[in-house]
Amino acid sequence: MKLQLYVPDGRYAPWIEGFAQALPEAQCLTWEGSRGEQADYAVVWRPPLEMLRGRTDLKAVFNLGAGVDGILRLRDQDPAALPAGVPIVRLDDAGMAAQMAEYVTHAVLRHFRRLDDYAGQQRAGAWKFLKPYRREEFPVGVMGIGTLGTHIARTLAGFGFPVRGWSRSAKTVEGVQGFHGEDGRAAFLDGLRVLVNVLPLTPETENVVDAALLARLAKGAYFINVARGQHVVEEDLLAAVQQGQLAGATLDVFRVEPLPAEHPFWGEPRITITPHISALTLREDSIAQIAGKIRALAEGRTVAGVVDLQRGY
Ligand code: NAP
Ligand code: GLV
């Protein structure tokens, strides 16, 4: 069995060692070192167009992340970019849900407990009590109640916040008030004190966070983006912060990454920036999951995380 691997940073050795241990029967090759050769499986993160176009040899393409926009966007360059009839399989949690829940919960609690306000007071040498927010009056909304969003929502509900979730189809998550589809969007958003975005990037969700959406949140709400930068109209977000519609935002993802040095977000103290680290791909967990799925596929079993190319996630 042959695996062909592509990682944009070119740091192949630990992946090759990991697959050698998890799947000793497989030969693991780098894309650069095996161009033109046939393989059974491709294991990729943001692959180049020529790696997948026209392939008839592959049995599946495994994506080294939860979001598959880096693969599906190849269709913009060439409608025939993806090998026909070959399943694309994304990571399904693989240790990311716990990381996401930590990151989002930290940001929510920091805002809820007014720690940024207290940090400002500390810089001014001020010892001053600030009125606490009331948990029961602090609805938090999670856009995208999938693998990661469900874990985030459950974790926040565990802290006693009223939690709402928004998905494409109707979902039931215990302790979370569910909304779905375009019809459910306004009711989901209205009056939220914190909005968390963990949607996949698709043509339907691109630019979903704009001035009209932000205006529906409670005045002084907080926004957390752990999904993709392209979900957000960045000028609208900046204006909402500067005009006080948003108290601030924690952003892990941006339209252009790394965030350019001249980008106005850098200079806005109410915006917290992290470099796309809210849920890292954990190598050992990911290799174990992919190896398990390769074995399952070889035995004719179905696997979780197969992407619906029409839906785009
Ligand atoms: P997932 O399991 O596929 O869940 C996606 C959720 O979004 C589902 O609930 C889906 O609704 C909902 N959704 C999709 N399109 C929608 C629409 N048009 N309207 C309303 N809801 C919609 O994905 P996941 O594993 O949770 O990952 C989510 C995203 O997180 C990834 O695509 C990736 O972009 C991002 N991510 C970021 C990082 C990071 O480090 N920043 C790390 C990992 C992942 P249904 O339930 O009805 O299908
Ligand atoms: C990271 O952004 C992922 O989609 O896994």
What does this entry show, briefly?
Helix content is 33%, strand content 16%. The chain is built from 12 helices and 12 strands.
Uncertain spans: none
SSE string:
EHEHEHEHHEHHEHEEHEHEHEEH
Strand order of the largest sheet: 8-7-6-9-10-11-12
Number of strands: 12
Report strand %.
Answer: 15-25%
Which structural class do you get from the secondary structure elements?
Answer: alpha/beta
Ligand inventory reads:
NADP nicotinamide-adenine-dinucleotide phosphate, glyoxylic acid
Number of helices: 12
Return Rg in Å.
21 Å
> What's the end-to-end separation, in Å?
28 Å
Shape: elongated
The amount of helix comes to: 25-40%
What does the average pLDDT come to? 98
Biggest pleated sheet: 7 strands, parallel
InterPro entries: D-isomer_DH_CS, D-isomer_DH_NAD-bd, NAD(P)-bd_dom_sf
Keywords: NAD, Oxidoreductase
Protein name: Glyoxylate/hydroxypyruvate reductase A
Domain D-isomer specific 2-hydroxyacid dehydrogenase NAD-binding: 107-278
Structural features, described:
It holds the Pfam family 2-Hacid_dh_C. With 313 residues, the protein is α/β, with parallel strands linked by helices. The radius of gyration is 21 Å and the shape is elongated. The model has no long low-confidence stretch (mean pLDDT 98). The strands form two sheets. It has a seven-stranded parallel sheet, with helices on both faces. Helix 1 crosses helix 12 and helix 6 crosses helix 8. The structure holds NADP nicotinamide-adenine-dinucleotide phosphate (NAP) and glyoxylic acid. The site of NADP nicotinamide-adenine-dinucleotide phosphate has 31 residues, from helix 8 and strand 7.
